[in-house]
């Protein structure tokens, strides 16, 4: 990045751009080409105030559950297939507050199904602490599994995420089919969950290659100006692959347009349910 800044300093064409928003866009394009990281961007935001992450307000659990249900869609599809569409992955703090209510209104409806489809096609936000919660519902309680390692550059710490031995409610288990739907808009924490379950051989990914985001971004003010640089400040390293899903995204097992992913997932589940009978006939 220092080399990119040095190169830009001598670029008289950039220096002559008078519109600050246009200048920010040009700088963003230049930085992306130089360091090959689409997550980094420069913005012009006069009046923006960098604020600390606010503490969760004291909202009654029933009201919180109602808010969360507005970001979750639950259906039981034909063939006893559970369908769960999630727009935001909640973290540990929120799960502790509203967990019992979510079990009653959402999870208990899905649990008796014979297969599940997790729809992450429009999931663009979430909390890091929510990753072990979701993954653990589709794994065994023992032995514990090292799910992910996240290096946080701002704190210079590596956080290890492990499966959880105890959970609210009953696990979905490891034997019933699980398919995760993705799109080019699937971002951040949802990408991590999909990558973990894919490499644990627990889920089949159907849809498009994901966005290739990160688990944590930070916005940095550029000197005494109204320009800001947004950069990733943490990195996820999967303990199974030794690699990260960031930048390149999560590749689907079945590559299909996002709008057709649900139909493809249903077809896959139906085909898998017929395999035992077909094998018996063949024998």
UniProtKB/TrEMBL annotation:
The keyword ATP-binding does not apply. GO terms for molecular function: retinol binding; serine-type peptidase activity. SMART domains: TSPc. The keyword Membrane does not apply. CDD domains: Peptidase_S41_IRBP. InterPro entries: ClpP/crotonase-like_dom_sf (IPR029045), Tail-specific_protease (IPR005151). Residues 60-257 form the Tail specific protease domain. GO terms for biological process: proteolysis. This is Interphotoreceptor retinoid-binding protein 2. It comes from Microdevario nanus. The gene is IRBP2.
């Amino acid at each position: 990045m220092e080399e990119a800044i040095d190169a830009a300093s001598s670029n008289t064409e950039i220096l002559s751009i008078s519109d600050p928003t246009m200048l920010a866009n040009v700088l963003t394009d230049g930085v992306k080409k130089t360091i090959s990281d689409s997550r980094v961007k420069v913005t012009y935001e006069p009046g923006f105030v960098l604020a600390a992450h606010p503490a969760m307000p004291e909202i009654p659990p029933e009201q919180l559950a109602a808010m969360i249900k507005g970001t979750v869609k639950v259906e039981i599809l034909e063939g006893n297939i559970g369908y769960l569409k999630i727009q935001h992955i909640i973290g540990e703090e929120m799960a502790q507050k509203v967990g019992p209510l979510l079990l009653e209104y959402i999870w208990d409806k899905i649990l008796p199904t014979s297969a599940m489809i997790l729809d992450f096609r429009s999931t663009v936000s979430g909390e890091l602490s929510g990753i072990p919660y979701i993954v653990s519902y589709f794994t065994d309680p023992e032995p514990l599994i090292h799910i992910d390692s996240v290096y946080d550059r701002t704190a210079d710490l590596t956080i290890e995420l492990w499966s959880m031995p105890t959970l609210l409610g009953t696990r979905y288990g490891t034997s019933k089919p699980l398919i995760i739907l993705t799109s080019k808009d699937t971002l951040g924490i949802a990408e991590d969950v999909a990558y973990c379950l894919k490499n644990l051989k627990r889920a089949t990914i159907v849809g498009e290659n994901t966005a290739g985001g990160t688990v944590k971004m930070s916005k940095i003010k550029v000197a005494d100006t109204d320009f800001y640089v947004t950069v990733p400040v943490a990195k996820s390293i999967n303990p199974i692959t030794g690699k990260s899903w960031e930048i390149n995204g999560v590749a689907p097992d079945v590559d299909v347009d996002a709008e057709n992913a649900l139909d493809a997932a249903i077809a896959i589940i139906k085909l898998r349910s017929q395999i035992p009978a077909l094998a018996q006939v063949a024998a």
